[in-house]
Amino acid sequence: MSSNKIYAASTAETQYIETKSARFAYRRLGPVGGVPLLLLHRFRATLDWWDPRFIQALAAERDVILFDNIGIGYTEGEPLRTVDAFADGAGEVIEALGLSQVDLLGWSFGGVVAQRLAVLHPERVRRIVIAGSGSGAAPGMPGIPERVLAIQQQPESSLEDVLYLFYPETEEARARGLDHFGRVQADMPEGAPQVTQEAAMGQLEAIMATMSRPWDDVVSDLKEITAPVLYAGGAHDVMIDAFGSYAAVQVLPNAKLVLYSDAGHAFLFQHLDEFVREVLVFLTD
Fold first, then answer.
1. Is the pTM of this model over 0.85?
2. Distance (Å, rounded) from C-alpha 101 to C-alpha 125?
3. Average pLDDT in the chain
4. Are 233 and 245 in contact (CB under 8 A)?
């Protein structure tokens, strides 16, 4: 399925849907039909923070849904503090929209949530793309650098901080990073809500709890995910080391791993065209 129409996230209407837990904000764009692609975003991001060119490229082929979970961005409520709570929130959105199944694309923290959603609600998930994420601290996995932890706990981060987190310190990668953040800022709606420090600390608490789980428990969960999984990442990711992706695909029953040797956490924007093609092929196999 393809379309000549251009779908832009910035012009998509922000809609709301009521569930038992919250009034969720979402945007839906792309040609309707087939299995929708639900996007789960990163730590400290709202639905406004996806790269607009990335969304446009996906929505040229797929029915794409962006949303803010409880206490994040446009969705009000008490901030969540566990991965299960974030997964349940996503499950409520899927159910409220009347969707029997979705494909998932989770970036960073969103990838952690996507995997948990596939364990808690396997009947709702057809295929999963895990981008720049992990499952837990696999044996031998390098720890998170102190500079990363310090930046994550700050109420605000400078451009240099986020470039360090998302892109390798090379001239080409830095240029791609500046392009990415420039596109995001240019497309940002006036008065767009930010992630509160309380909500960010709730996400960080959920992340730390995930990283401290016994690896045997992580393995048990991964073995329950029977949906096909595409794991992808940058070989120089300072936030979630690529070792975690390699460890996960050794356990998952049906998985593929793609690593970009010159990229970091934001490989999906540094290699936007290549990665979108990889995703679309994987989702249509």
1. yes
2. 5
3. 94
4. yes
